[in-house]
Write a structure and sequence with these properties.
Chain lengths: 261, 333
């Protein structure tokens, strides 16, 4: 079994997000990039499948700040091969990202055949589409998203995938392999890996590079950002200020006035 | 459909979803601004009768096929793309839900059309279709031009739940229904085996008047008793956002949001919850929302009535003590 995991870096929203001059994009120089949260879950789901069934895991990422750390961490966790696509224009969109992934999968030896291609179902910057369905369509593979669990059938020709629906309902799907799954959450939280193990991976693991090809002209309808600004949420809420005991006292008064306890 | 504003109508388990009504309400506004009809596109199998619930639209295009009995993204996208082929609608609004996620992207790919996700609002200005999008976990608002009238295919617009009130898009009446024939291949690649109903939890969150919700700001499972003590003092129950559930700190039955429950308590205290749109979807209609978060830019403050910028772990015991003291004072009075 070969599992290909597609990884994309995304801005860390715990940090302040700055808008670039011109007001139409984030300031890339001020961003701290981390592995997209659902991609981290996709990697974890691949690792769980490897533990259960035995598998070779290839982690394929798009070049971005901190991507080497993410790939070495993936290797330290158990990925057998790590590769990044390099040479893209900065600020590529999600549909372009999907195309870069698809090109690398088609061109780089050993990425296909893959029995399963796992990636996060959605990233916080997926403004113009989602990676997983586009890659699936390009490879003519079936696609299922919002997946929170995967179990292989004994034949290894199919998998049972759990998809989330609203109101806590889930659906169990039988998916013929090879397939692309958009992972919402792995069955377990992404594992912690000690820094020492990551450092060891940095010394022993080589990140392979795949040169991005030029995207075909006119292939992608552009989406034009007119303006981007920080959400200023505090305007809605009445903010209570002071030390914890002070604001707690204020809040209690408000709740009591409303008869809430 | 040429020039029309279209809405993809979700049906799930025999019913039109609430988010469809919300999206119809938004679509109605946009269609009126543009001076064009609103068309609902309803894919399904043997569910033509559901078209009468789509009365907010001027017309319904019904796509009937056995493979559309369940919403499998590639199949549904292929069906809608076929139904729209040869037509030039101005835009197709697709709910961003667990049912329909991915369908908009796939329609865009098939039609070579632009896709804009995360839309909270859409308007027509000087003939341009502009979408206001909430992205980066709710921290950034972007205004996006969503395709010109002469652009490559309709603009495919992914709409966040909560964009409008469902009531504004709910209208039961007879509307003209056109049947669209499609040819779909049964590859058997993806089949729904069964639905798994949520296990009944020890507490029915939907019936609680007070909910104390914890998020990533809880920091550690060991801090969960602090939330439980606060909930006990307020006479409510503890629930959580997705990260807390994924960590296994609370069971799935306590999840509020897109994949969990939708709650409308009298009081919702959000502790260490940033307020990603997926969480807000499940609690925005609470009568009173109090948010505590160390990040003054946290999007949760955009729906909260009262906000406290602070550490949730530090605030919980202080708030519990204040509630207990107030209750004790009330008993003595």
């Amino acid at each position: 079994m070969h599992i290909l995991v597609l990884l994309k870096m995304a801005p860390d929203v715990v940090e302040d997000l700055e808008i670039a001059p011109g007001g139409k994009a984030l300031d890339l120089d001020c961003l701290r990039m981390i592995l997209s949260e659902s991609d981290d879950h996709a990697l974890e789901q691949a690792l769980l499948l490897k533990e259960r069934h035995g598998a070779k895991i290839t982690a394929l990422a798009l070049d971005a700040p901190e991507v080497d750390d993410a790939l070495f961490t993936a290797a330290a966790k158990g990925a057998d091969r790590v590769m990044k696509v390099v040479g893209m224009d900065p600020g590529f969109t999600t549909r372009e990202a999907a195309r870069y992934f698809s090109q690398a999968i088609a061109e780089e030896p050993g990425l296909l055949p893959a029995d399963l291609i796992l990636t996060g179902v959605q990233a916080i910057d997926d403004l113009d589409g989602l990676v997983a369905p586009i890659v699936a369509d390009g490879l003519r593979m079936p696609y299922l998203g919002i997946v929170t669990g995967v179990a292989l059938e004994a034949s290894a020709q199919a998998a049972r995938a759990i998809k989330e629906y609203p109101a806590g309902v889930r659906g169990e799907f039988l998916v013929q392999l090879p397939a692309v799954l958009g992972i919402q959450a792995a069955e377990k939280p992404p594992r912690y890996v000690p820094v020492a193990k990551v450092r060891a991976a940095m010394k022993s693991v080589k990140i392979e590079c795949s040169q991005a090809l030029t995207l075909a002209d006119g292939g992608l309808p552009l989406v034009g950002v007119v303006e981007m600004k920080r959400n200023e949420p505090a305007g809605h809420a009445e903010m209570l200020e002071g030390k914890p005991d002070q604001v707690s006292g204020q809040l209690c008064g408000i709740l009591a006035e409303r008869g809430l306890f | 459909m040429t020039g029309n504003i279209c809405v993809l109508a979700e049906q799930w388990r025999g019913q039109i979803t609430e988010v469809t009504y919300e999206t119809l309400a938004l679509g109605r506004e946009v269609a009126d601004q543009a001076g064009v009809p609103l068309t609902a596109i309803l894919p399904g199998s043997h569910c033509r009768e559901l078209a009468r619930f789509l009365g907010a639209a001027d017309a319904v295009v019904y796509i009937d096929h056995p493979l559309l009995a369940e919403t499998v993204p590639q199949t549904c996208a292929e069906a809608v793309a076929q139904a729209m082929a040869g037509e030039r609608p101005r835009a197709l609004l697709v709910p961003l839900t667990n049912i329909s996620l991915g369908i908009g992207t796939l329609i865009g790919v098939r039609l070579g059309a632009p896709v804009v996700n995360f839309c909270r609002d859409i308007r027509v200005a000087d003939g341009r279709l502009l979408a206001d999008c909430v992205m980066y976990g709710g921290k950034i608002e972007a205004t996006v031009e969503a395709g010109a009238p002469s652009g490559p295919g309709p603009a495919i617009l992914g709409i966040w739940p909560g964009a409008r009130q469902a009531e504004k898009g709910r209208a039961e009446r007879e509307v003209p229904v056109t049947d669209a024939a499609v040819v779909l291949e049964d590859t058997g690649a993806i089949r729904l085996c069964r639905y798994i109903e949520p296990e009944a939890g020890d507490v029915d969150l939907t019936k609680q008047e007070v909910l104390v919700a914890v998020g990533r700001g809880l920091q550690d499972r060991a801090n969960l008793p602090l939330a439980e003590e606060l909930a006990r003092a307020l006479g409510g129950a503890v629930c959580g956002s997705r990260p807390v559930i994924d960590q296994g700190w609370l069971p799935l039955s306590r999840q509020v949001g897109k994949s969990g429950l939708t709650v409308k308590p009298k009081l919702y205290v959000a502790l260490g919850i940033s307020g990603a749109p997926e969480h807000i979807e499940g609690m925005k209609d609470a009568a009173l929302i109090v948010a505590v978060n160390s990040d003054p830019q946290a999007p949760i403050f955009s729906v909260a009535h009262y906000g406290i910028v602070g550490d949730a772990v530090e605030t919980m015991p202080a708030l519990t003590a204040a509630v207990e003291a107030r209750k004790a004072a009330g008993q003595h009075a």
